């Protein structure tokens, strides 16, 4: 799969939306780090594709949910709330190891904010 992220970018985490615990959909999730930015990408579709992205430093809250069905198959849903006008809410549905993913995102978000000198008070 080709990407437009740049030669210095690296994919820190990736997964697919899962059905019954199996990655058989055309929705893909990526956490991509570049020297200048770190972003979450959601790519959907096969013939008609859509790509959404959010800079991690713009995210101000994370919610993780896990229904009984998701727990049975070892998946969960993570909702990212951001100050991005075009994507105020980014939903990462049915990914495996949701607690790991939430913690990874939370740590990377804090790193990005610290790198840019943001403080909590700036997000009120």
Structure description:
By secondary structure, the chain is of the alpha+beta class. The model has no long low-confidence stretch (mean pLDDT 91). The protein has helices at 68-72, 98-115, and strands at 10-16, 27-33, 38-44, 50-55, 59-65, 75-82, 89-96. 19% of the residues lie in helices and 40% in strands. The protein is globular and about 40 Å long. The protein has a 4-stranded antiparallel sheet, covered by helices on one side. A 3-stranded antiparallel sheet has the order 5-6-7. The chain contains 2 helices and 7 strands; from the N terminus they run βββββαββα.
Strand order of the largest sheet: 1-2-3-4
Classified by CATH, the class is Mainly Beta
Give the helix/strand class.
alpha+beta
CATH fold field value = PH-domain like
The major β-sheet equals: 4 strands, antiparallel
Tertiary shape: globular
> Radius of gyration, Cα only, in angstroms?
15 Å
Average pLDDT taken over every residue = 91
Unreliable segments of 5+ consecutive residues: none
Summarize the structure.
The protein has 124 residues and is of the alpha+beta class.
Q: Which helices and strands, and how do they pair?
A:
Layout: E1 10-16, E2 27-33, E3 38-44, E4 50-55, E5 59-65, H1 68-72, E6 75-82, E7 89-96, H2 98-115
Antiparallel strand pairs: 1-2, 2-3, 3-4, 5-6, 6-7
Short key terms for the protein model shown above:
2 helices, about 120 residues, 7 strands, globular, alpha+beta, three-stranded antiparallel sheet, PH-domain like
């Amino acid at each position: 799969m080709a990407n437009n992220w740049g030669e210095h970018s690296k994919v820190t985490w990736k997964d697919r939306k899962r059905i019954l615990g199996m990655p058989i959909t055309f929705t893909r999730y990526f956490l991509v780090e570049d020297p200048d930015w770190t972003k979450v990408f959601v790519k959907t579709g096969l013939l008609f594709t859509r790509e959404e992205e959010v800079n991690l430093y713009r995210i101000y809250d994370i919610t993780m949910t896990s229904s009984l069905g998701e727990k049975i198959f070892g998946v969960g849903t993570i909702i990212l709330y951001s100050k991005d006008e075009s994507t105020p809410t980014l939903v990462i549905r049915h990914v495996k190891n949701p607690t790991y993913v939430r913690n990874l995102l939370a740590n990377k978000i804090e790193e990005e904010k610290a790198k840019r000198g943001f403080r909590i008070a700036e997000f009120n």
